[in-house]
Amino acid sequence: MLRLRDVTAGYDGSVVLDHVYMDVPLGRVTAVLGRNGVGKTTLMKTIIGLIRPMSGVIEWEGEDITRWPPERRARAGIGYVPQGREIFSALTVEENILLGLEAQAEKVRPQPTLDEMYALFPILKEMRQRKGGDLSGGQQQQLAIARALAGRPKLLLLDEPMEGIQPSIVALIHDAIMKIAEEKQVGIILVEHNVELAFACADHFYIFDRGAVVAKGDVDGADLDHIQSFLAV
Ligand SMILES: Nc1ncnc2c1ncn2[C@@H]1O[C@H](COP(=O)(O)OP(=O)(O)OP(=O)(O)O)[C@@H](O)[C@H]1O
Protein backbone atom coordinates (compact mmCIF):
# COMPACT_ATOMS: atom_id res chain seq x y z
CA MET A 1 0.00 0.00 0.00
CA LEU A 2 1.17 3.50 -0.87
CA ARG A 3 -0.10 6.25 1.39
CA LEU A 4 0.10 10.00 1.03
CA ARG A 5 -0.63 11.91 4.21
CA ASP A 6 -1.25 15.62 3.93
CA VAL A 7 1.28 16.03 1.13
CA THR A 8 1.93 19.53 -0.16
CA ALA A 9 4.41 19.88 -3.04
CA GLY A 10 5.31 22.11 -5.97
CA TYR A 11 8.10 23.98 -7.66
CA ASP A 12 10.34 26.70 -6.21
CA GLY A 13 8.01 27.52 -3.38
CA SER A 14 4.83 27.60 -5.49
CA VAL A 15 2.28 25.05 -4.29
CA VAL A 16 0.85 22.62 -6.88
CA LEU A 17 -0.31 19.69 -4.70
CA ASP A 18 -2.38 20.94 -1.83
CA HIS A 19 -2.68 18.78 1.32
CA VAL A 20 -3.21 15.52 -0.57
CA TYR A 21 -4.32 12.30 1.16
CA MET A 22 -4.33 9.10 -0.92
CA ASP A 23 -4.35 5.34 -0.35
CA VAL A 24 -3.22 3.13 -3.23
CA PRO A 25 -3.64 -0.61 -2.60
CA LEU A 26 -1.75 -3.41 -4.39
CA GLY A 27 -3.64 -5.60 -6.87
CA ARG A 28 -6.01 -2.78 -7.83
CA VAL A 29 -6.15 0.00 -10.42
CA THR A 30 -6.47 3.49 -8.95
CA ALA A 31 -7.39 6.20 -11.47
CA VAL A 32 -6.14 9.75 -11.01
CA LEU A 33 -8.32 12.11 -12.98
CA GLY A 34 -8.32 15.83 -13.58
CA ARG A 35 -8.21 18.51 -16.23
CA ASN A 36 -4.93 19.62 -17.81
CA GLY A 37 -2.61 21.35 -15.41
CA VAL A 38 -4.28 20.31 -12.13
CA GLY A 39 -1.11 18.57 -10.91
CA LYS A 40 -1.36 14.92 -11.99
CA THR A 41 2.19 14.67 -13.33
CA THR A 42 3.45 16.60 -10.31
CA LEU A 43 1.77 13.95 -8.15
CA MET A 44 3.57 11.17 -10.07
CA LYS A 45 6.92 12.95 -9.71
CA THR A 46 6.33 13.40 -5.99
CA ILE A 47 5.56 9.69 -5.57
CA ILE A 48 8.67 8.55 -7.45
CA GLY A 49 10.86 11.05 -5.60
CA LEU A 50 11.74 13.59 -8.29
CA ILE A 51 9.98 16.28 -6.25
CA ARG A 52 10.42 16.56 -2.47
CA PRO A 53 7.21 17.50 -0.66
CA MET A 54 7.22 20.78 1.28
CA SER A 55 5.24 18.98 3.99
CA GLY A 56 3.42 15.72 4.61
CA VAL A 57 4.44 12.07 4.58
CA ILE A 58 4.67 9.40 1.87
CA GLU A 59 4.51 5.82 3.13
CA TRP A 60 5.26 2.70 1.13
CA GLU A 61 4.55 -0.70 2.69
CA GLY A 62 4.54 0.85 6.13
CA GLU A 63 7.85 2.74 5.74
CA ASP A 64 8.24 6.49 5.61
CA ILE A 65 9.89 7.09 2.20
CA THR A 66 9.34 10.86 2.09
CA ARG A 67 13.09 11.57 2.05
CA TRP A 68 14.14 8.61 -0.10
CA PRO A 69 15.80 9.43 -3.46
CA PRO A 70 14.19 8.11 -6.68
CA GLU A 71 16.65 5.19 -7.12
CA ARG A 72 15.83 3.82 -3.69
CA ARG A 73 12.10 4.05 -4.37
CA ALA A 74 12.60 2.25 -7.70
CA ARG A 75 14.57 -0.52 -5.96
CA ALA A 76 11.76 -0.81 -3.42
CA GLY A 77 9.34 -1.57 -6.26
CA ILE A 78 7.89 1.73 -7.45
CA GLY A 79 7.92 1.84 -11.28
CA TYR A 80 6.96 4.70 -13.58
CA VAL A 81 5.98 5.01 -17.24
CA PRO A 82 6.06 8.75 -17.98
CA GLN A 83 3.80 10.57 -20.39
CA GLY A 84 5.22 10.27 -23.89
CA ARG A 85 6.38 6.66 -23.36
CA GLU A 86 10.13 6.86 -23.09
CA ILE A 87 11.72 3.91 -24.81
CA PHE A 88 15.11 3.50 -26.48
CA SER A 89 14.24 4.08 -30.15
CA ALA A 90 17.57 2.84 -31.52
CA LEU A 91 17.37 -0.47 -29.64
CA THR A 92 15.20 -3.41 -30.63
CA VAL A 93 12.01 -4.29 -28.80
CA GLU A 94 13.75 -7.24 -27.16
CA GLU A 95 16.75 -5.14 -26.10
CA ASN A 96 14.39 -2.59 -24.53
CA ILE A 97 12.72 -5.30 -22.45
CA LEU A 98 16.06 -6.89 -21.51
CA LEU A 99 17.23 -3.52 -20.19
CA GLY A 100 14.12 -3.42 -18.04
CA LEU A 101 14.89 -6.90 -16.74
CA GLU A 102 18.38 -5.81 -15.75
CA ALA A 103 17.01 -2.78 -13.93
CA GLN A 104 14.76 -4.97 -11.87
CA ALA A 105 13.89 -3.97 -8.35
CA GLU A 106 15.02 -5.93 -5.28
CA LYS A 107 15.91 -9.52 -6.07
CA VAL A 108 13.45 -10.80 -3.47
CA ARG A 109 10.80 -10.94 -6.16
CA PRO A 110 11.02 -13.75 -8.73
CA GLN A 111 12.84 -12.92 -11.96
CA PRO A 112 10.30 -12.18 -14.68
CA THR A 113 10.92 -13.57 -18.14
CA LEU A 114 10.69 -12.26 -21.67
CA ASP A 115 7.94 -14.81 -22.29
CA GLU A 116 5.82 -13.32 -19.51
CA MET A 117 6.08 -9.91 -21.17
CA TYR A 118 5.28 -11.41 -24.58
CA ALA A 119 2.25 -13.22 -23.14
CA LEU A 120 0.87 -9.88 -21.95
CA PHE A 121 1.73 -8.05 -25.18
CA PRO A 122 1.85 -10.59 -28.05
CA ILE A 123 2.55 -7.90 -30.66
CA LEU A 124 5.91 -7.27 -28.99
CA LYS A 125 6.93 -10.86 -29.67
CA GLU A 126 6.15 -10.42 -33.36
CA MET A 127 8.09 -7.16 -33.40
CA ARG A 128 10.96 -8.28 -31.18
CA GLN A 129 13.72 -7.60 -33.72
CA ARG A 130 12.34 -4.21 -34.81
CA LYS A 131 13.79 -0.96 -33.50
CA GLY A 132 11.65 0.66 -30.81
CA GLY A 133 11.50 3.87 -32.83
CA ASP A 134 9.89 2.06 -35.78
CA LEU A 135 6.86 0.92 -33.77
CA SER A 136 3.48 2.67 -33.84
CA GLY A 137 2.48 4.86 -30.88
CA GLY A 138 0.30 2.11 -29.41
CA GLN A 139 3.06 -0.48 -29.79
CA GLN A 140 5.59 1.86 -28.18
CA GLN A 141 3.21 2.32 -25.27
CA GLN A 142 2.97 -1.45 -24.82
CA LEU A 143 6.77 -1.65 -24.95
CA ALA A 144 7.13 1.11 -22.36
CA ILE A 145 4.78 -0.74 -20.00
CA ALA A 146 6.52 -4.08 -20.63
CA ARG A 147 9.91 -2.52 -19.94
CA ALA A 148 8.73 -1.00 -16.66
CA LEU A 149 7.02 -4.25 -15.69
CA ALA A 150 10.19 -6.22 -16.41
CA GLY A 151 11.72 -4.36 -13.47
CA ARG A 152 9.13 -6.21 -11.36
CA PRO A 153 7.53 -3.23 -9.65
CA LYS A 154 4.92 -3.70 -6.93
CA LEU A 155 3.44 -0.35 -7.84
CA LEU A 156 3.30 0.93 -11.40
CA LEU A 157 2.53 4.54 -12.27
CA LEU A 158 1.16 5.06 -15.78
CA ASP A 159 0.91 8.68 -16.90
CA GLU A 160 -1.79 8.94 -19.61
CA PRO A 161 -0.94 5.65 -21.37
CA MET A 162 -3.96 5.90 -23.69
CA GLU A 163 -3.13 9.36 -25.01
CA GLY A 164 -3.22 9.53 -28.82
CA ILE A 165 -3.71 5.78 -29.21
CA GLN A 166 -6.22 4.18 -31.58
CA PRO A 167 -9.29 2.56 -29.95
CA SER A 168 -8.43 -1.07 -30.81
CA ILE A 169 -5.06 -0.73 -29.07
CA VAL A 170 -6.64 1.10 -26.12
CA ALA A 171 -8.69 -2.05 -25.42
CA LEU A 172 -5.51 -4.17 -25.47
CA ILE A 173 -3.76 -1.85 -23.07
CA HIS A 174 -6.80 -1.86 -20.77
CA ASP A 175 -6.77 -5.66 -20.68
CA ALA A 176 -3.05 -5.72 -19.92
CA ILE A 177 -3.45 -3.17 -17.11
CA MET A 178 -6.20 -5.22 -15.48
CA LYS A 179 -4.19 -8.44 -15.83
CA ILE A 180 -1.08 -6.82 -14.34
CA ALA A 181 -3.10 -5.73 -11.31
CA GLU A 182 -5.04 -8.97 -10.81
CA GLU A 183 -2.57 -11.66 -11.79
CA LYS A 184 0.63 -10.04 -10.61
CA GLN A 185 -0.94 -8.22 -7.66
CA VAL A 186 0.69 -4.97 -8.75
CA GLY A 187 -0.87 -1.71 -7.62
CA ILE A 188 -1.49 0.60 -10.56
CA ILE A 189 -1.96 4.35 -10.62
CA LEU A 190 -3.54 5.28 -13.94
CA VAL A 191 -3.41 8.98 -14.78
CA GLU A 192 -6.11 9.93 -17.25
CA HIS A 193 -8.25 12.88 -18.15
CA ASN A 194 -10.98 10.87 -19.88
CA VAL A 195 -13.29 9.37 -17.28
CA GLU A 196 -14.75 6.69 -19.58
CA LEU A 197 -11.29 5.40 -20.47
CA ALA A 198 -10.19 5.39 -16.85
CA PHE A 199 -13.34 3.77 -15.49
CA ALA A 200 -13.17 0.96 -18.07
CA CYS A 201 -10.32 -0.55 -16.10
CA ALA A 202 -10.06 1.18 -12.70
CA ASP A 203 -11.35 -0.01 -9.32
CA HIS A 204 -11.00 3.28 -7.43
CA PHE A 205 -10.63 6.90 -8.43
CA TYR A 206 -9.33 10.23 -7.17
CA ILE A 207 -10.35 13.46 -8.89
CA PHE A 208 -7.97 16.41 -8.65
CA ASP A 209 -8.76 20.06 -9.15
CA ARG A 210 -6.13 22.74 -8.67
CA GLY A 211 -3.86 20.31 -6.85
CA ALA A 212 -6.45 19.11 -4.33
CA VAL A 213 -8.50 15.90 -4.13
CA VAL A 214 -12.09 17.00 -4.76
CA ALA A 215 -13.75 13.58 -5.09
CA LYS A 216 -12.76 9.95 -4.56
CA GLY A 217 -14.35 6.54 -4.26
CA ASP A 218 -15.06 3.19 -5.91
CA VAL A 219 -15.72 3.15 -9.64
CA ASP A 220 -18.73 0.85 -9.08
CA GLY A 221 -21.70 3.05 -8.31
CA ALA A 222 -19.82 6.33 -8.87
CA ASP A 223 -21.92 9.37 -9.79
CA LEU A 224 -20.62 10.14 -13.29
CA ASP A 225 -22.43 13.49 -13.59
CA HIS A 226 -20.82 14.69 -10.38
CA ILE A 227 -17.42 13.50 -11.60
CA GLN A 228 -17.82 15.09 -15.04
CA SER A 229 -18.54 18.43 -13.37
CA PHE A 230 -14.90 18.50 -12.22
CA LEU A 231 -13.56 17.47 -15.61
CA ALA A 232 -15.56 19.65 -18.00
CA VAL A 233 -13.37 22.37 -19.48
N1 LIG B 1 8.99 22.22 -13.74
C1 LIG B 1 8.00 23.04 -13.39
N2 LIG B 1 8.27 24.24 -12.82
C2 LIG B 1 7.27 25.09 -12.45
N3 LIG B 1 5.95 24.81 -12.59
C3 LIG B 1 5.62 23.63 -13.14
C4 LIG B 1 6.62 22.69 -13.57
N4 LIG B 1 5.98 21.60 -14.08
C5 LIG B 1 4.65 21.85 -13.97
N5 LIG B 1 4.44 23.07 -13.41
C6 LIG B 1 3.12 23.67 -13.12
O1 LIG B 1 2.44 22.85 -12.19
C7 LIG B 1 1.05 22.81 -12.50
C8 LIG B 1 0.61 21.35 -12.64
O2 LIG B 1 1.26 20.74 -13.75
P1 LIG B 1 1.19 19.18 -14.01
O3 LIG B 1 2.04 18.90 -15.22
O4 LIG B 1 1.48 18.46 -12.76
O5 LIG B 1 -0.36 19.02 -14.39
P2 LIG B 1 -1.10 17.82 -15.10
O6 LIG B 1 -2.39 17.66 -14.38
O7 LIG B 1 -0.22 16.64 -15.18
O8 LIG B 1 -1.37 18.39 -16.55
P3 LIG B 1 -1.48 17.61 -17.97
O9 LIG B 1 -2.76 16.83 -17.91
O10 LIG B 1 -1.55 18.76 -18.93
O11 LIG B 1 -0.27 16.77 -18.12
C9 LIG B 1 0.85 23.62 -13.77
O12 LIG B 1 0.39 24.90 -13.40
C10 LIG B 1 2.24 23.70 -14.37
O13 LIG B 1 2.41 24.89 -15.06
UniProtKB/TrEMBL annotation:
Gene3D superfamilies (UniProt xref): P-loop containing nucleotide triphosphate hydrolases (3.40.50.300)
Matches recorded under CDD domains: ABC_TM1139_LivF_branched
Domain of life per record: Bacteria
Keywords: Amino-acid transport, ATP-binding, Nucleotide-binding, Transport
InterPro entries: AAA+_ATPase, ABC_transporter-like_ATP-bd, ABC_transptr_urea_ATP-bd_UrtE, BCAA_Transport_ATP-bd_LivF, P-loop_NTPase
GO molecular function annotations of the record: ATP binding
Domain ABC transporter: start-end pairs: 2-231
Pfam families according to UniProt: ABC_tran
Family: Belongs to the ABC transporter superfamily.
Protein name: Urea ABC transporter ATP-binding subunit UrtE
Protein species of origin: Geobacillus jurassicus
Taxonomic lineage from the root: Bacteria, Bacillati, Bacillota, Bacilli, Bacillales
Gene name linked to the record: urtE
